[in-house]
Design goal:
By secondary structure, the protein is an alpha+beta fold. It has two domains: 44 residues, N-terminal domain of TfIIb; 92 residues, K homology (KH) domain (GMP Synthetase, Chain A, domain 3), CATH 3.30.300. The protein is 30% helix and 29% strand. The protein contains three helices and six strands. The chain has a three-stranded antiparallel sheet, with no helix packed on it. It has a three-stranded mixed sheet with strand order 4-5-6. Strand 2 and strand 3 form a beta hairpin. The protein is globular. The termini are far apart.
């Protein structure tokens, strides 16, 4: 694979109760363990960062395949939920649920675009076979 871009970030402090920042200085956040996991909460956590990255990446892939199909993705939204829990082997695992709004696209066509985006999205390709990912096309309002 020819690498087109490389992102670089650093974690410091106490891991999940620390800080993350990018090497170019455009992004820096304090981290805290969520209350649901026994922490203080009140700051970002790695699962939120993963959810934000996956939502943005999947939305970009969706817009790419929609453009190729000449589909109208006006008002499109991708929501991502990332869950974390024990994996039964002494470690932890993740789950991902993507919920997609394509209000200007008929449901069958929307489902096809979402599946195509799932084949194109780098996050989907990285998680395939490793993380359970569910895709849901939300009913138009």
């Amino acid at each position: 694979m020819q690498v087109l871009y490389t992102a670089s970030a650093r974690a410091s402090g106490d891991g999940r109760d620390g800080r993350v920042s990018t090497s170019d200085g455009t992004f820096a956040l304090d981290l805290a363990v969520p209350k649901e996991m026994g922490g203080a909460g009140g700051a970002a956590n790695p699962e939120q960062l993963f959810a934000a990255g996956y939502a943005a990446c999947f939305h970009s892939a969706l817009r790419l395949v929609a453009r190729r199909a000449k589909a109208d993705v006006t008002g499109s939204i991708v929501d991502a939920e990332v869950g974390i829990g024990p994996n039964g082997g002494g470690g932890f695992g993740l789950t991902v649920a993507l919920v997609i709004d394509l209000p200007a696209v008929q449901r069958t066509a929307a489902e096809q675009l979402v599946e195509q985006a799932h084949q194109v999205c780098p996050y989907s390709n990285a998680t395939r076979g490793n993380i359970d990912v569910t895709l849901t096309v939300r009913e138009a309002l």
